[in-house]
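Q: Could you predict the 3D structure of Large ribosomal subunit protein bL27?
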Amino acid sequence: MAHTKAQKTVKGNRDSQSKRLGMKLFGGEKAKPGYIIIRQKGTKVNAGPGTLLGRDFTIMALKEGTIKFYKKWGEAYVAVV
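A: Sure. Here are the predicted structure tokens for Large ribosomal subunit protein bL27:
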């Protein structure tokens, strides 16, 4: 029989910690230099003017302004205007 009773938890019964990815600021919100706008895996959204793409694909603001999302040639971009 394939039942296990009265033993410790199985080796594969663990889950990884969530990485807290996603949007941290939305379109129309105010941003200051250094504010994180998006945390992502890969470039789902590209960095536009006024933003910086970090080594781990985090997009952050380089200047003070308002966040704007737009599409260009089918690619998504975020900018600080």
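Q: Anything worth pointing out?
A: The chain has one domain: 22-80.
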